[in-house]
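task queued by scheduler; priority normal; single chain, no ligands, no partner chains; default sampling; output format set to structure tokens
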Amino acid sequence: MKVSTSKGCLSLSVLIFCLVVGCGPGNKVDIDKVTFGREAMAIRLNGKALVQRIDIWEGRKQVASKRIGKEARTFLVDIGWQRGGEYRVEVALRDPPFVLTTTCRAPAKPGPMVLESLKLEDVDPYQLWDYCYVGGIVAFSPEAKYLAVGSEKGYLRLVDIENGQVLWRKRIGEGRIVSMKFSPDGRYLAMGEQSRDAFIYLYSIDGQLLWKFPASRDVGTIGPGEPKYHLPVVNSLVFAPSKRDQRIYFTASHYLGASGQNYRHRGRIYCLDMKGHPLWAYPRKGCMDGSPDALRIDARGKYLIFSNYWKGKSYTRSLYCLDGQSGQPLWGWDFRHIFPEKRLGIWHGVDISADGAYVAAFSNDGRGFLLSNRQLIKGKKGVLWEKTISTPIVVNGLTIYGFPALAKIGEDYVAFLTGNTNARQGKRRPAFEHPNANSLFVYDLKGKLQWTSRIGGASYTDRIHTSSDNRYIILPIRYNRVEKDCLLHGLYLFDNARPGGASDRLAWFFHTDGMALSADISQDGRYVALLEYPVDMDTRNEFQDVKGRHQVYILR
């Protein structure tokens, strides 16, 4: 495992110590840098050495010890260090026996550490003003042993987290991979694509394809010459949370093109068993004249929520709830629109609490809602509170708003994330930022604003990713179409256990040259994966200004 760091902490006293006593046999090996990460230290030597063990002391107390037994240059040691604390690091070499020693003072905050980086296949850069989807997603296995990487060109990789090796790599077809999840027991990997057939695939952990199911058989496919964004797609998929009752739910949708001012869609929800056999579909017969986008399920697998972004004449609600076992509809919910386009509903701004009691909804006109699932099941309105977050304002005659992107319910908070500034007047490009665009808003369950952060760019992922205890929140930044500044690209990691505002809770920011397309955090919060994608920052068709590469980082 290689580790590169963005912050070093080798003090002047350490340098003096090394100059006076020497730092290894023949002064050839030295402790080059010590970096403090999240619950970890990275010790880097100035060359490879066979290390027997590493011990870390705080005063007279030994606070960490790790047996190594291998030759490398950089080593990672888990330690719950305290800011401002002074630590002594001892690196015991095996051959010849020698102990390298240095001291270092801990900083106020950790820094991001790159454990591994993996270059992927070449792809065409994303155009900054292109509103089409780009394929690519990363996902950790439940025990954080593996990382799955799906790409725009249909490549699927499984990476061993411990050593960064690609265990297997497959080309699934011509489709782009847009959704992916591991089963709760970590034995299976399901993935959905956007392609002519819109397959959902199930692989075993050793790379064997067990089955594939064509979602296009019901929602249809495109004819020759139609653009790629008209292809049917498996937008979202989830496993039933129980390891005993394993089943897969997924959405299939197909954009049929525009008819006047309306955008026509066809969609369906499926439930399959682990052999790929359909258990039920919603609706029972035919398809919705809507676009089911985001699926969410509670921790017991009792309630399945899905959003409807472009509503039809029959399916006129923005959110629907189904019984997770039978697929029977329990309720549909909508809001009173302030936009004239009343067919616009909710994109990915939906979540359900682990206990199934609450549903968060982020409406297309920029309002955040907390709903009572119990009241909605009883046929009541169900709105516990409503917040105005990114509703439209008029600037120089142009009506602009911050795109309502994502929603998340933690144990004691509700979060809403806005995206880029959009204009209501067709495809006109706004020259001004909406004041609440590209920002995170965190409320408690009673609706009181706890903290907010302006993250500078859009984080258009499948959901807001958190560790299983909801302590860590990660936000990958794709771009900012108004600012057009590639310095905004990267990934934010917030520690929600810290008191204070956003600056206190921000653990670190990791910059990427290209856009941060997708990210995931392991359930235990130890590892973060980030998929970088090249982007053309020049909005003129005849010129290019490409930033970044197609690659994956594993961070600590």
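post-processing summary
- The longest strand covers residues 40-58.
- The first helix runs from residue 12 to 21.
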